[in-house]
Amino acid sequence: MIESFKYLAHHIHTCGEDSIRVISEEEDNYIDQLHTEYNHFLEETKHIFPHSKDWAFLVNWKDLSVDDLKEKWVEENRIGYEDERTKVTGVLEQYELIQGDDGHPRYHGYVVPKEGERVAVIGSARQLPLVGRSYIIIGVGREHAELGNVLEIHKIIPDS
User: Fold this and answer.
1) Rounded to whole angstroms, how far apart are CA atoms 24 and 34?
2) Pairing with 117, which of 8, 16, 42, 105 sits 20 to 30 Å away (CA)?
3) pLDDT tens sequence across 17-28
4) Residue 139 pLDDT more than 70?
């Protein structure tokens, strides 16, 4: 089901809604058409899916029970340093891409809070945030070797 959804989302994004069609099961070569299109989709999108380290997580912890796997997922994705976390709400003023080593785009930019001085941020995301949009950012202050004092983004949420 997930593969079908990803196929449909990719197809709509690539070709537009008008190109959606149904291959009739009544056609003689139904299976061939279906398999050919799906195999083509897999080849075209292998660089997109999966977007995260989910597969590596599952491979690393495949021997755990489902309940233990859920607990491990929470443990590995929990934001540490609860006492050091900072929450900033403001408009993303600008950012520039910097070298990322995990396959996701990494960026350095500035957020201008409603009150206060602009804050330097650094983050990594599957989809880059939009400049000029307001976000709620939760992160931890870090000293970066090249960029100085930055707020390392752990979570960025559009502010409505």
Assistant:
1) 10
2) 105
3) 666 666 666 777
4) yes
- DSSP class of residue 129? P
CB 96 within 8 A of CB 108: yes
Q: What is the pTM of this model?
A: 0.48
- Dist CA 109 CA 92 (whole Å): 7
Beta partners for residue 111, in sequence order: 92, 119
Amino acid code (one letter) for 85: R
- Please state the three-class secondary structure of 50-112 as a single string: CCCCHHHHHHHCCCCCHHHHHHHHHHHHCCCCHHHEEEEEEEEEEEEEECCCCCCCEEEEEEE
Measure the CA–CA gap between 145 and 65, rounded to whole angstroms: 41
Residue 13 to residue 19: CA distance in whole angstroms: 10
What SS3 class is residue 130? Answer: coil
User: What are 2-48's pLDDT values in tens digits?
Assistant: 667 777 777 777 777 666 666 666 777 767 777 777 777 777 766 66
Instruction: Give the residues across from 29 on adjacent strands.
Output: none
Comparison of pLDDT for 9 and 99, the residue scoring more: 9
